[in-house]
Structure formats: structure tokens, C-alpha cells
Specification:
single chain, alpha/beta, Immunoglobulin-like, 3 domains, eight-stranded parallel sheet, 34 strands, about 30% strand, disordered N terminus
């Protein structure tokens, strides 16, 4: 108890030091979500950020940091003020609300103390995501760098630490749409479907002690045919990895394997994961050396398999656990009026997913953005299938060709191509073990699309356990990937058909309703089609859904409705940007959505 009390006291001192001398309040006058007032500046987003690899000892670095915006090349000496991490500097919840630009660097600084009980351990500094290039110093020693705005990274800072107070400094540069890097919907001049730039730290920063020989990552592959899980504990140097699989608190299977070897955990009568029954097994994974436990982590897994099979008419359908399933859900941008890329609280992060379930959907297309690890955990536990986009980059005007099929592709520089491959691989690696993810989407609507056949084949080879939707909305290539994905606004339409691939409607809808008092800019809003009441929006939604239902019989196997929420001046969400107002009648939407999903299997 004394050790625990000391640890908690140390954490409290560290957090208090971070927040001292600074009163915080949201910046700007834009609308905010109900969770904005629940943000605690002493401990924002306090939850453990990595549900699939959990340890008991850790320190959360979220809170008030010093910051400065300085021209590229200038050194950080005097702070401009305080910023609330992990909210990006452009956001309201950062307490700053200012842009940075390609000509400047954003600097962060904070002090911290290492608990004495961590002595003899390696100390890892973790970042959920920093957009885009980050350089890190501890006590004036450069400890590492990272490029990529959407994936976690870790730096071992042990050798730079000293007794007492330590200083952490981070320099961030982000060119947003001035360079080739993946940036999704971010632009320097927001308008229409393009939104505010996001610069710097936007996910949790945290620290934990580990032994020198420790588990870096867990890679989990369910194998339905073999009735087993294949589990690799990555990063371990030597020893034996011991795995205990648990169901409802009881150990039901065990397995052991040498370090660097994939373990096989047999589960002859596994309970299958589906959106209707999102059952998760618990995992305890220990690294053993000379009969002693060197490292231990907790995780979870689920038994599910994604595939493609022909129905009785010869139409290729997507399957889940060998059964055909119509995948239907909203285009989810993942933006927040107060936090931009970052949800105000974990409750808010889960809210949109539960809302999607309430609307009767079984899938989300995560559109040109990647979420924190906890978002995918919420999808895993709540039972939502995920199509994961690669964030777009190197756009330079969007479409490369007027042709929808096998048109001209982007010619990227060697640096641009190498960066795309690096970041796409990091995304697939980071979220590989989440059962909710069933489809990878390398390109959207020809935005920055290049070497489609090669990138698609590489994606499929790298992760053969999932389907690949190579070009959502075009530019399409024969034999590329598992899916032909059409976009059409506002109503559903099937204007192409491929008998050798799954056919889906990757975007449609966009029914707009501006709601006074819930607008990002009261005097400016945009939508594909606009109506004046939730009843009118629902009537139009149901009309489109019934049209879609007819097209399911003709060959559509999935559909994506635009979109979950309004985003900035876009007003075509199923709810407002601040999540305070439902723009559809939920019972009617839920009922028609269930009809659409069911129609593929009942032939109606």
C-alpha cells in the first residue's frame, strides 16, 4: 500500500505541476458539445490509452503544457502561454485556438518526475498521435523523431533521465495541404467539405516503466477454420511467452511459445464475434525467463472471419464468419467542434458509435481519418464493423482524370510514395488486432491515387485477413482488390457492375438540414440537398433507403450514408456537429435500416 500511495502521490504532483499557474478555458466562440464542460484541465482524457496492451503502472502526461509558435529555425526559449494537451492548438479545447502554418514550428514543454520505484526499469514515452513531424528532447538530449500524423509511436527515454525534475520538449512541424503528407480533410483555408487544419499533439501522451526484455506489441489473428487464435508477442528478446485465454473471468485455454514464435491458442467451440453478439475474450500474456515472470500485459481478442462468397444468383457477397452480411453504416469523419480531431472525453468518443447502433446500422466507414486506439476498442465491444480509410494526401487538386475507370493516376515523387507506404503500413500494424476492422481502403475518389494495382496487391498481401476496397468512388481498375465501390449523390444508383468483385455503394445521401443555434458558421452552410425539418429529412432518408433496398437484390452488398454528423459548414449529418440535436426520427431510420440489412438474406 505504501508503494501504491507513493506512486499515486507522484502522479498527482506531476499533474499538479503541469497545471499550476494557469487558468484554462475553451478558446473562441464556435458551438461546443455537451462534453466540453466535463473536460478537466488537470486530467483530460485520463483513461488508459491502449486497451489491447495494458500494464498497471503508467503516468498520463495529458494536461497543461507550455507552448510557443516560432518561425522555422528559431529556438524555443520563452513560452507564448499554456496549452491543454492532447487537444491540437487550432481547437477550442486547447485553450489557444490559433493556426501555425508551414513557416512555423509548434513547440511544447513540460516538466516531470520519475517515481523512485521505477528505478532499474526502462522508461518508455508513448505518443498516441502527433501531426505531422515531431522531434523530442529530454533534458536537452534529442531522444527521437517521428513523421506521420495518425499512428502511435514510442521512445525509450531512459538514458536521458536524471534524478528529480526532468524536462520534456517537443518540436512539431506540419505543412497540412502544402506538402505531400497524409492529412485527410485538413486544409489551410477551410471551405465546403474541407476543414480546419490540425497541428501537433492530438492524442494522449503517456509514460510507463518496463523491463529491458519486454513485450512491445501483440499481434492477434483469429483462425476460424483451425478453431484457434495465432498470437505473436512482438519485441521480446528471449524467454517463453505464456498466454491465458479467458471467457467471463475463467481461463479456458493456454499456450506457450518461444520468444519470436507465434503461439497457437486452441478454442474448439469459440463464441463468434458479430455486431449482434460482440463477444470478446480476455487475454493475459506473460513473458517468462528462468521460471520467473519478466513482463505481463492484458489484452483481448475475438473470433471472427471476413470473406467473399457467391449467393444463389452468383452475386458476390461479403461474409462474416462464413455467413453473408449486408454492411450498412454512415460515413464517419470523426471531427468535433471543440476538439477538432480529438473527442472531448472518452464518453463522447463512444457516443457516436452507440448512436450508430441506435440508428440500426452495423458498420462505420472511418473516412480519411484514423482514430485513437480506444475508439476501435469501443467498436469491438459495442459491435460495429469498420471500413478504415487511409487519410488522403498529395492531392494537388483532387481528381487526376475525368475518367471513372482506369484513368490517369497521380505521379508521386519518390519521397511522397515512400511516405505513403510508411504511414499506411504503420496504420495497418497499429490496428491489425482489432476485430471490428474488416475492410482497408487505400484511396478515396482518386485523391492522391497512384499505382493502384500495386498498392492494392501490397495491402492485400500484407494483411490477407481483411478485404481491400482499393478505390472508394473511383478511379477504378479491373482486378484491383475485392470491391467495386460507387459514389452517387444524393440518391442511390448502380451505374457500374463487376461480376468478379463485391459491388458496394460507398457514399450516397448527404441530406442537409441547417439547425439554428447548432451551426459552425451561422451565416454559411453547405449540403448536397437541403430540407427544413427532421420529418422532411427522415422522409427523404427512408425514400433513399427503400431505393437502396431494391438495388441490394440487383447486387449491392454494402452501403455508406453521408454522414454521422455535420462537420464545420457541412450540414448533412444525421445529427448536428455539437451532437445536441437529432436531425432524423430515430425509430423510423432504425426500422428502415434493419429492413435494408435483412433484405440481402431474405431475397426481398
Amino acid at each position: 500500500m505504501k508503494k501504491l500511495a507513493f506512486f499515486l502521490l507522484t502522479v498527482g504532483i506531476t499533474l499538479a505541476f503541469s497545471a499550476s499557474g494557469q487558468s484554462w478555458q475553451p478558446a473562441g466562440d464556435h458551438i461546443r458539445t455537451p462534453w466540453a464542460e466535463k473536460v478537466n484541465p488537470s486530467s483530460p482524457l485520463p483513461e488508459y490509452p491502449r486497451p489491447q496492451l495494458k500494464r498497471d503502472r503508467w503516468i498520463n502526461f495529458n494536461g497543461m503544457w507550455e507552448y510557443a509558435v516560432l518561425p522555422v529555425g528559431e529556438r524555443f526559449e520563452k513560452a507564448d502561454g499554456r496549452i491543454l494537451v492532447p487537444f491540437c492548438i487550432e481547437s477550442s479545447l486547447s485553450g489557444v485556438g490559433r493556426t501555425v502554418g508551414a513557416g512555423n514550428n509548434l513547440w511544447y514543454r513540460r516538466n516531470f518526475i520519475i517515481p523512485k520505484e521505477w528505478k532499474g526499469q526502462r522508461v518508455l514515452l508513448h505518443f498516441g498521435a502527433v501531426d505531422w513531424r515531431a522531434d523530442i528532447w529530454v533534458n536537452d538530449v534529442k531522444t527521437g523523431s517521428h513523421t506521420g500524423g495518425y499512428t502511435p509511436f514510442t521512445i525509450d527515454i531512459t538514458d536521458a533521465l536524471k534524478g528529480g525534475e526532468n524536462t520534456l520538449v517537443i518540436k512539431v512541424w506540419d505543412g497540412t495541404d502544402t506538402g505531400f503528407q497524409p492529412r485527410g480533410k485538413q486544409v489551410t483555408k477551410p471551405s465546403g467539405i474541407w476543414y480546419t487544419s490540425v497541428t501537433g499533439i492530438w492524442q494522449t501522451v503517456w509514460m510507463e516503466p518496463v523491463p529491458e526484455n519486454h513485450i512491445d506489441n501483440i499481434r492477434i489473428t483469429p483462425d476460424l477454420q483451425a478453431n484457434s487464435f495465432r498470437i505473436m508477442a512482438e519485441g521480446v528478446k528471449d524467454g517463453i511467452v505464456e498466454i491465458n485465454l479467458k471467457a467471463e473471468g475463467r481461463t479456458i485455454a493456454t499456450a506457450k511459445a518461444f520468444a519470436g514464435t507465434e503461439a497457437e491458442v486452441s478454442v474448439p467451440s469459440a463464441r463468434l464475434w458479430t455486431p449482434d453478439d460482440p463477444f470478446l475474450y480476455d487475454l493475459e500474456i506473460s513473458l517468462m525467463k528462468n521460471g520467473k515472470t519478466v513482463d505481463k500485459v492484458r489484452s483481448y481478442c475475438a473470433m471472427r472471419q471476413v470473406g467473399v462468397a457467391a449467393d444463389e444468383k452468383g452475386i458476390l457477397r461479403m461474409t462474416l464468419n462464413g455467413q453473408p452480411l449486408f454492411m450498412y453504416g454512415p460515413l464517419d469523419q470523426g471531427w468535433w467542434p471543440d476538439g477538432l480531431y480529438t473527442a472531448p472525453t472518452d464518453e463522447a468518443l463512444a457516443f457516436d458509435i452507440q448512436k450508430t447502433k441506435d440508428w440500426g446500422f452495423n458498420m462505420i466507414r472511418k473516412h480519411v481519418k484514423v482514430e485513437p486506439d480506444r475508439w476501435y476498442w469501443h467498436c469491438d465491444r459495442l459491435g460495429i464493423l469498420v471500413w478504415q480509410d487511409m487519410p488522403s494526401g498529395d492531392l494537388k487538386g483532387g481528381w487526376q482524370s475525368e475518367h471513372l475507370f482506369e484513368g490517369a493516376e497521380r505521379t508521386r515523387s519518390a519521397a511522397s510514395e515512400a511516405n505513403y507506404r510508411k504511414e499506411w503500413k504503420e496504420i495497418m500494424d497499429a490496428f491489425y488486432s482489432h476485430p471490428c476492422i474488416v475492410v482497408w481502403v487505400p484511396f478515396n475518389e482518386g485523391w492522391g491515387q497512384f499505382k493502384t494495382l500495386e498498392i492494392t496487391a501490397w495491402t492485400k498481401e500484407y494483411d490477407p485477413t481483411r478485404l481491400v476496397n482499393s478505390a472508394s468512388g473511383g478511379n477504378h481498375f479491373l482486378t484491383a482488390g475485392d470491391i467495386l465501390d460507387l459514389h452517387n449523390y444524393p440518391e442511390p444508383s448502380m451505374y457500374l457492375y463487376d461480376s468478379k468483385r463485391v459491388n458496394v455503394l460507398g457514399e450516397y445521401g448527404g441530406i442537409g438540414l441547417p439547425v439554428e443555434g447548432h451551426l459552425w458558421l451561422p451565416d454559411r452552410n453547405w449540403g448536397y440537398v437541403k430540407f427544413s425539418s427532421p420529418r422532411e429529412v427522415t422522409d427523404e432518408y427512408v425514400k433513399y433507403a427503400l431505393q437502396l433496398k431494391d438495388l441490394v437484390a440487383r447486387g449491392f452488398s454494402a452501403a455508406v450514408y453521408t454522414q454521422t454528423t455535420d462537420v464545420e459548414i457541412e450540414v448533412n449529418g444525421l445529427m448536428t456537429y455539437d451532437r445536441r440535436f437529432d436531425k432524423v426520427e430515430i425509430p423510423r431510420v432504425r426500422e428502415v435500416n434493419r429492413q435494408v440489412i435483412k433484405s440481402m438474406n431474405d431475397g426481398k
